[in-house]
TrEMBL record:
<keyword id="KW-0175">Coiled coil</keyword>
<dbReference type="InterPro" id="IPR002347">
    <property type="entry name" value="SDR_fam"/>
</dbReference>
<feature type="region of interest" description="Disordered">
    <location>
        <begin position="193"/>
        <end position="212"/>
    </location>
</feature>
<feature type="compositionally biased region" description="Basic and acidic residues">
    <location>
        <begin position="194"/>
        <end position="206"/>
    </location>
</feature>
<keyword id="KW-0560">Oxidoreductase</keyword>
<protein>
    <submittedName>
        <fullName>SDR family oxidoreductase</fullName>
    </submittedName>
</protein>
<comment type="similarity">
    <text>Belongs to the short-chain dehydrogenases/reductases (SDR) family.</text>
</comment>
<dbReference type="GO" id="GO:0008206">
    <property type="term" value="P:bile acid metabolic process"/>
</dbReference>
<dbReference type="GO" id="GO:0016491">
    <property type="term" value="F:oxidoreductase activity"/>
</dbReference>
<feature type="coiled-coil region">
    <location>
        <begin position="38"/>
        <end position="65"/>
    </location>
</feature>
<dbReference type="InterPro" id="IPR036291">
    <property type="entry name" value="NAD(P)-bd_dom_sf"/>
</dbReference>
<dbReference type="Pfam" id="PF13561">
    <property type="entry name" value="adh_short_C2"/>
</dbReference>
């Protein structure tokens, strides 16, 4: 048994980010062709495209503002013209900002999180799900966070956006399930990335002490779960919020 995405096309938003690039590579290694979305880092997107082509898979880059329905529609039109249908959508893009307390957090940061968490999810659904319904197949995968279960100080804007995203994904799962479209979320913990390896910041004893597995997870471990949910091995899983956090957060029944 293996994860086989041969014949599938996957879109990863925010593909040039620390997690996005590993997800894209992993989906390609499983046999998928890739649509690599970026907002501003065209050079990294082009570099990633060549990496994926070197793996023997097709890849294209596309620029879009996921906070704009018009921009996402334009992205889909270009993908349809050049690649055809998208089978797997991974919503990974999110605005970056400086975290601080609610009293000090600029209100603009709450709007940016709403736009790139909630509205990105809505825009991607409105744009890509209708074609999935027509084909009776699709995978919608949102990248959430363990933070929505922690509610620690300074997390408010991020948690607000991701909790809103959670509601969209759970309801979408119920609305499109009859068409054999699965809708799930992966919730990373504080993950070791390429940047951590470069800066030698992989270890954080304070955080690790709270994790049952006593370590931080890796970007590859997050990407593995995304690939699983994208595959037919996960064909009867939908509406799930799956922490990949070494047990640091545990949804209760």
């Amino acid at each position: 048994m293996k994860i086989d995405l041969s014949g599938r096309t996957a879109l990863v938003t925010g593909s040039t980010g620390q997690l996005g690039r590993v997800m894209a590579r992993t989906l390609a290694q499983c046999g998928a062709d890739l649509v690599l979305h970026y907002r501003g880092n065209e050079a990294k997107a082009n570099e990633l495209r060549e990496e994926i082509r070197a793996l023997g898979r097709e890849a294209m880059t596309v620029q879009a503002d996921v906070a704009s329905l018009e921009s996402v529609h334009a992205m889909q039109a270009r993908v349809a013209a050049e690649r055809g249908s998208v089978d797997i959508v991974v919503a990974n893009a999110v605005a970056q900002y400086q975290w601080t307390t609610i009293l000090e957090q600029p209100t603009a940061d709450y709007f940016s999180q709403f736009e790139t968490c909630v509205m990105q999810s809505v825009h991607l659904a409105k744009t890509f799900v209708p074609d999935m319904i027509g084909r009776g197949y699709g995978r919608m995968i949102g990248i959430n966070t363990e933070c929505v279960m922690q509610n620690f100080p300074t997390q408010s804007a991020y948690v607000a956006g991701k909790r809103g995203m959670d509601g969209i994904y759970r309801i979408l799962a119920k609305e499109v399930g009859e068409h054999q479209i699965t809708v799930n979320q992966v919730a990373p913990g504080w993950t070791i990335s390429e940047q951590d390896r470069t800066n030698r910041t992989e270890r954080n004893e304070g955080y690790e002490s709270s994790v049952p597995l006593k370590r931080r997870g890796t970007d590859q471990e997050i990407a593995n779960v995304v690939a699983f949910l994208a595959s037919d091995l996960a064909s009867f899983i939908t509406g799930a919020y799956i922490p990949v956090s070494g047990g640091n957060v545990m949804p209760a029944i």
